[in-house]
Amino acid sequence: MTIAPAPLLLLIWFLTEGFSLRPSLPHIFSKIAPMVLAILSIIIAIFTFNLAKDEEPEWGPALPFKVIEGAAIAYVVLAVIFLLLIASTYFLP
């Protein structure tokens, strides 16, 4: 679960061809699908964050769970940045 959003974000990068202004893929694959993948990545990252938060032990080392929570927050931030880039590059004049 921890690394599940990473392949989705990489797929967004490849589908948009690095947020190219003139992607060679059809409209649905270069503009719509990356937005759906970014939203799915956010949902998975939030689920991962909540899962790590619930499983965090009261006693003992909590560092691995804090690392997972931090990674989940980073995935959410990166997915939001990708959503903003897609919206500003492809949908705003």
From the structure above, extract its key features:
mainly alpha, 3 helices, elongated
Short recap of the structure:
The protein is an all-alpha fold and 93 residues long. Helices cover 74% and strands 0% of the residues.
Structural account:
With 93 residues, the protein is mainly α. It has one domain. Helix 1 runs parallel beside helix 3 and helix 2 runs antiparallel to helix 3. It starts with a helix and ends with a helix. The mean pLDDT is 92.
What is the strand and helix layout of this fold?
Layout: H1 5-15, H2 27-55, H3 63-91
Helix pairs in contact: 1-2, 1-3, 2-3
**Distinct helical segment count:** 3
Mean pLDDT: 92
Q: Kindly, what is the distance between the CA atoms of the first and last residues, rounded to a whole number of angstroms?
A: 37 Å
- Strand elements, count: 0
